[in-house]
Amino acid sequence: MNIGIIGTGNMGTMLVEALIDGKAISPSSMIITNRTKSKAILLKDKYKKIRVGANAEEVAAQSDLLFLCVKPLDIYKMLDKIHPHLSPEKCLISITSPVSTSQIEKKVSCSIVRVIPSITNRALAGVSLITYGENCSGLWKTKVEKLISKISVPVCIDEKITRVASDIVSCGPAFFSYLLQSFIQAAVKETEIDNETATIFASEMIVGLGALLKQGHYTLPSLQEKVSVKGGITGEGIKVLDNELGDVFEHIFQATHAKFKEDLDKVEIQFSNQ
Predict the structure, then answer these.
(1) pLDDT (tens digit, 9 = 90+) per residue, 96-114?
(2) Residue 220 has what pLDDT?
(3) Cβ distance 20 to 47 under 8 Å?
(4) CATH number of the domain bearing residue 123
(5) Which partner from 6, 154, 205, 239 sits 20 to 30 angstroms from 273, CA to CA?
């Protein structure tokens, strides 16, 4: 099976690296392209047998399964370019949340899947969110799930929870990376620890936390209960979090959903004009 990737920005590059390192595909079966060719060339330098297509049309023509890794407002124009090369026996995967599978199905005749990946997939971990188009063939559903399971845990989701699921799975690593950096900076500011040492400690702590949860030793509530001994130091820190975090996470979801609504409206204008 030949796999094409149009767009080798952050997520496109991550997918290339994860699929190859996870042995989901061989480099020789992949053809990629990018508007700025140098980004695609960097991947070919790393994986010598990858082919770099001259343009999106060439990649679409030579692919059985095609990942479309471009910005939401670029998808409509890209579909105009590549749809002659997307015959019914092929499959197109979009990785952007504001564009629905039903919208893409109006433009092309092949099987359609939306896969929302996470940066955690680069470590062959985490979740990938999957939504199948109404006309996606059973064969492609099986093939896509098998492929994605090599780099993550594939989870099919309902359209109505697309944004919140993506906030948790895809945006979550950035949110919690920001919080962890703030945690480290506060430690350096308020105590005698240096930044390098605090970063090592905090990074290893978060890796260990993930391992505890993954191995099933604790749930999030039971872990907090185990560490936060009544009357102890951890409890004092939890009190501060209770008092000062307030509605910060509610505000995060409100902000992401508001931006998502803006993107949805802009995408709908594009697709309603066809």
Answers:
(1) 999 999 999 999 999 999 9
(2) 94
(3) yes
(4) 3.40.50.720
(5) 6
**pLDDT tens across 74-86, in order?**
999 999 999 999 9
Same-domain pairing of 38 and 120: yes
Please count the structural domains in the chain: 2
Residue 95 included in any domain: yes
For 239, the domain range is 165-252
**Domain termination site, one of 108, 132, 157:** 157
CA distance 92 to 65: 6
Residue 230 has pLDDT above 80, yes or no: no
- 3-state secondary structure string across 121-163: HHHCCCEEEEEECCCCCHHHHHHHHHHHCCCCEEEECCHHHHH
pLDDT in tens, 17-39: 999 999 999 999 999 999 999 99
Instruction: Evaluate if residue 274 carries a pLDDT over 70.
Output: no
Please indicate, yes or no, if residue 71 is contained in any of the structural domains: yes
Q: Which residues of 88-112 are buried (b: 16+ CB within 10 A; e: fewer)?
A: eebbbbbbbbbbbbebbbebbebbb
For residue 88, the model assigns a pLDDT of: 96
Residue 185: inside a domain, yes or no?
yes
Q: Do residue 111 and residue 183 come from a single domain?
A: no
103 Cβ contact partners less than 8 Å away, ≥ 6 residues apart? 267, 268, 271
- Report which of 101, 90, 161 is spatially closest to residue 127, judged by C-alpha positions: 161
